[in-house]
Amino acid sequence: MTGPSPTTTGGPTTFADGDDFVTAAIDAGRVPAEADFAGVFRSLLPVLAADHGVQMLQKDRWGPGRADPAPHLPGDVPVLRSIVVNSLIAPVIAAQESGRLGPAPGLSVGMAARLATAEPYFVPASDGTAAAVLESDPPSAEDMSDIRLGHDHVTVWFGDDLRVPDDLAVWPDPPSVGDTTRWEATFGAGGRSMPHLLGERGCSITGVTISAGPDGTGISDWIDWIIAIPPQPGDPPPWDLDTIRGALPGRASHATLGGLVATCAAAVAWGDWTRPADDGHGPLPPAEEQQGKAWRKRVRKSQFRKALARGFGTVNVIDLTHARTAMTPADPATKPTGRKVSPHTRRGHWRRSRIGPRDGPTQYRRNWIAPTHVGGTVHSGRERVRVLPAPR
User: Fold this and answer.
1) How does DSSP assign 143-157, residue by residue?
2) What letter would DSSP give residue 366?
3) Which residues pair with 316 in a beta bridge?
4) Could you name the domain of life of the organism this protein comes from (predicted)?
5) Residue 231, exposed/middle/buried by CB under 10 A (0-12, 13-18, 19+)?
6) Distance in angstroms (rounded) separating the CA atoms of residues 156 and 124
7) pLDDT tens digits for 142-172?
8) What integer pLDDT is reported at residue 284 of this predicted model?
């Protein structure tokens, strides 16, 4: 694939010319062979079973016949992962049984395997954390080469379905009927045509799965976006409430949201993260133990419900404790400088700071510098909308 036009996710420009994209993905080792599908599916069973158990415990939030909750909690990550992984593999299994596999069903299988095994990181959206972090200036190319994710794959969940700004929304045109048939299983459409919906409606972004670069250094150009296609007025029940969730492969270098990938990778590598306390209730026991009177009594306890909302200590949540003071505006009572400054916000960014004694070995650490409000209060600007930031 040479010199493609950029798209929102860095995927194929059109579904009709997606074969070149598939070939590049195969060459990059992102697509397992069809002969290996059964082994991949078996490896996913423990994760799917555990995630399904969490989903069943959250029927009050994720039950059928109701809109998906917003914003999301750390404990929603297993539910979202379960929905997305199933949306990827179910159409492939159905296509195998019918003998109508698309050009590369391995795209979906590969995305499912990476998402199921990726270390989860969660950036809350309810308190402005997601906006502060995701709107940060991405690190330089030199700094990107120093990133170490610490895992083969990581998924950064944004805490909500974030809308793509109109100036960055470049979606493939809705495919023809023939192309829909070819790509339906590949992109996890389930019983509906995700390619058509994507071309007609676009989508919001819920997260991104990032892979480590060679030898764990830097990051791969190949990424998997976790997407959400919201319902539209006039959709028949139950689709009038159902948010369609899935994943799309792409390349950061060909994506209008490429800067966001670098920012997320930097946050994983250099940010402060904490696993929520499980309060002695996690991780969840095997499914066969989730029954009986003792189990039902345990589930009703408030501590258990709190642990459930926190993800049972399995989800990393960003910790901005040390940076929050910088996210508040300067004291208006401070001595004026005489300059007239329009109210604005300086974006967050990563600062490379030297640590250790001056006469010792040279060592550096990256610190996240939070956004700073200048010339006004936090609420003096425009009302903030949950939308992905434009790249810098």
Assistant:
1) HHTT---SSSEEEEE
2) E
3) 121
4) Bacteria
5) middle
6) 11
7) 888 889 999 999 999 999 999 888 888 887 7
8) 72
pTM (two decimals): 0.83
How far is Cα 286 from Cα 82, in angstroms, rounded to an integer? 16
Q: Where are the extended beta strands (E) located within the chain? A: 119-122, 153-163, 204-212, 219-229, 244-251, 273-274, 316-318, 344-346, 349-355, 363-369, 372-374
Which of 200, 257, 249, 258 shows the shortest CA–CA distance to 12?
Answer: 249
Give the residue extent of every domain in the chain: 18-274
Percent of the chain with pLDDT over 70: 70
103's CB contacts (< 8 A; 6+ apart) are: 18, 19, 22, 182, 183, 186
Q: Tell me, what amino acid is at 87?
A: S
Residues 6+ apart with CB under 8 A from 270: 147, 350, 365, 366, 367, 368
Determine the Cα–Cα distance for residues 25 and 19; give it in Å rounded to an integer. 10
pLDDT tens column, 55-109: 888 888 887 778 899 999 999 999 999 999 998 998 888 777 776 666 568 888 9
Element of type H or E holding 271: none
Query: According to DSSP H, which parts of 300-334 are helical?
Result: 302-309
Half-sphere exposure of 273 (CA within 13 A, CB side): 22
For the chain, helix, strand, coil in percent to 5 are: 35, 20, 45
